[in-house]
Structures are given as C-alpha cells and as structure tokens.
Amino acid sequence: MGEFWEQAFKDKLEMWGLEPAKSTVLVKDYFIEQGVTNILLPGIGYGRNAKPFIDNGISVTGIEISHTAIELAKKHFGNDLKIYQGSVTEMPFDKKMYEGIFCYGLIYLFDKGERQKLIQDCYNQLTENGFMVFTAITKQAVTYGQGTNIGKDRFEMFGGVKIFFYDNETIEEEFGKAGLFEISEVNENYPFHIIKCRKDKTLD
User: Fold this and answer.
1) How many CB atoms lie within 10 A of CB 28?
2) Residues in Cβ contact with 202 at an 8 Å cutoff, skipping those fewer than 6 apart
C-alpha cells in the first residue's frame, strides 16, 4: 500500500500541479471571513490545498504519511509550511490549538473507529469557537457500490483502497456531537460533502 500512495502522489502532482480543489477555495474564503489565522491540514499531501491559505497569510501546519508528498511540499513551499510525518490516526503531533482545521478527501479512507478518532482528535485541537471542515465523498459518486462490499456503504476498490461513502444521515451520526452546523456539496473529481463544525459545545 505504501508504494501505491507514493505513486499516487506523483500522479496527482502531474495531473493537478498546485491547483487547489474547489472545496479548498470555498473553505479558504470562509476561514478568511471568520478571521482564522492558523490552520491544521491533516493529510496535507504535497501541499496543493495549502497554497490558497498560505497565499492569504494564514499559517499552515500539515500532517502527512508519505515521504514523497512531504518532499514535494518542501520543494514548493520551503519554510512556509510545517509538516509532521506520520499517519493522522496517530494524532495529535503537537499541543497547539488551531483556529481552523481542514481535512480534505481523507476521512472516508478509514474504518468507523478511525473516523471517530480523527473527528475527536481534530475537535480536541480546536480553539474555543474554532472551525473544522471535512470533505467526504457522497453516495452519488459513480464508484458507490463498485468493488468488494466490506461493510455498510464501504467498498474496497482500486487495488486495495477502502472507501466509505457518506450521506446526510451518517454525517449527522458521526459529526453531530462535534459542533456540526452545515452540510453542503461540491463537485470535484467526485461529488463531495463539505462538512462544517464549530467548537461551541462539548463532544461526548
């Protein structure tokens, strides 16, 4: 699997360059509107989704498991970007509290327990009234139902990648106690939910 992801990052760099995802631009605008000055990006990849924040004066810290992706990010951003090497399942990597957390296209790759831990870990590192935003693939994606079914709305495909497909019900179930206040949709290469939460109440 490690080799799969290392090659995937190289392929993505060739495909997208440093062009950010549509949802990233929307979240950047929202964070600026809310006065967010520092953010954490779990699963930062090679940094294409960090660029809009950095370009607007927002301090960015990332977490990334792929050495290849980190080297690419360092090449493009140098000291403008701090990245912890490791899996987001091992969070937290520091004791810092962040005003914003943006987790793009990652949470749906984990099983339920790992998803719950990621949500909890991100929530725990938010400042009071801080925001966290996740994007998650929807059940309207053409790949929903393909591959091998390994659980409710979870399928294994693409040579071993396990994907959980969200709908509003499962979003409410998993994010409802984490300050969930808005669900919207955006069409990237796949249809994604944009899930917004605010730290304004205790996560049980």
Assistant:
1) 23
2) none
